[in-house]
Amino acid sequence: MIHPHSPNQLRIGIVGLGYWGPNLARVLNSLDNCVVTVLCDRDPERLKAFGQKYPMALTSVDAAEIMTTDHVDAIIISTPTKTHFQLAQLALTNGVHTFVEKPLATSTAECDSLIHLADTNNLKLFVGHIFLHSAPVAKLKDMVLNDEFGEIYYMSSTRLNLGPVRYDVSALWDLAPHDISIMLELMGSPVAVNCSGLAYLNPSNHDVCTLNIHFEDNRMGIIHVSWLDPHKKREMTVVGSKKMAIYNDIESLEKIKIYDNGVEFEDLSHQDDTTYADFRVSYRYGDIHSPRINEVEPLKAELMDFIDCITANKQPKTDGRNGRDVVQVLEAADLSLNQKLGDVQLSTLKRGDSVKEMKLVK
Ligand SMILES: NC(=O)c1ccc[n+]([C@@H]2O[C@H](COP(=O)([O-])OP(=O)(O)OC[C@H]3O[C@@H](n4cnc5c(N)ncnc54)[C@H](O)[C@@H]3O)[C@@H](O)[C@H]2O)c1
């Protein structure tokens, strides 16, 4: 049976009904301006079990089949990372607007190819960088734009948990896209990347990684990710010359705390009696406050934006180029990680250049 829909409802298909796909389906089902017409998972048991929840949707184990039906305007790809490129290529080639879960693909070359396909076929390519649709990140961005932090020195983030362990990509590629996307949004284009990590469970995938991203003006982003940690942690710190902030995504109410803290130096070098220090350091411990944040569920905001970009023909903020920027950092991080050398310089790269051709700097 074909799902009934009104002309102003976008018909959406979902590929991949593992952990995340059902969340996408739940939220899409709550929106008036779309309807889930097709569901796909290559696992027939999974498809059958899930399809029963959405009896009006067509089901298939074959992604190629659903991309070519007349019943979808847009496809959401929520499958393992290594399958993103091939599935997105299929969707875009068949004239379907495409949402790809993070990370967009496994290389910048794949991203370029998808961007080109979307551009030439006049289709939207949207990447699931969900945090760029979250109210706490928007609040931090506002604070940056309004110079409330002063000069930003660095940002750091920890994204830890016990599982889920992926078989197709490392913890870096699975978890760090969230932090990278936020840091690029707040700090701009990266200059260089340095990464270290280790694989314990499976020799081909790192379970724990630390990534340093250097930005212009001496600013830095530090990211620690692991799926082999006893404690679930989703925390980001912004340290500026005027203020500092901690964003704890696990908190239900006070997700952001702003600290009116700082360090100031008094230059005493002009005084004759200065004996062992030319500077006096003073620490400012001011008020701590938690701003009110009216949060819409980020997944809902993200999917509403996807639909709006298609129906109003708007360029997504998290478009293919935004997805590529994140993949470029991951690709450079892999180069640094696997060759155990040093910084991978990104500042000299032009758009379209491949990180794989870069030289490492010792
Ligand atoms: N935005 C977020 O916060 C968030 C959270 C979790 C996962 N994700 C992303 O969502 C994607 C899926 O993650 P997950 O945790 O649901 O993975 P998962 O392994 O739990 O589920 C993936 C599903 O895809 C199916 N599948 C694999 N290849 C397929 C193919 N070629 N055709 C059809 N079905 C196929 C599998 O059978 C499985 O049911 C990943 O890209 C992940 O990074 C995003």
Radius of gyration: 23 Å
Report helical residue fraction.
25-40%
Report how far apart the termini are. Answer: 61 Å
Shape: globular
CATH topology of the largest domain: Dihydrodipicolinate Reductase, domain 2
Strand content: 25-35%
Structural class, from helix and strand content? alpha/beta
Largest sheet: 10 strands, mixed
Write the element-wise H/E pattern from the N-terminal end onward. Answer: EHEHEHEHEHEHEHEEEEEEEHHEE
CATH superfamily of the largest domain: Dihydrodipicolinate Reductase, domain 2
Q: Reading side by side through the largest sheet, how are the strands ordered? A: 14-13-12-11-7-10-9-8-15-16
Integer count of domains: 2
Number of helical segments with 4 or more residues: 9
**Average pLDDT reading:** 92
Question: For this structure, what is the CATH class of the largest domain?
Answer: Alpha Beta
- List cofactors, ions and other ligands: nicotinamide-adenine-dinucleotide
Architecture overview:
It contains nine helices and 16 strands. The chain is of the alpha/beta class and 362 residues long. The chain has two domains: 10-130 and 298-319, Rossmann fold (3-Layer(aba) Sandwich), CATH 3.40.50; 132-296 and 328-345, Dihydrodipicolinate Reductase, domain 2, CATH 3.30.360. Bound molecules: nicotinamide-adenine-dinucleotide (NAD).
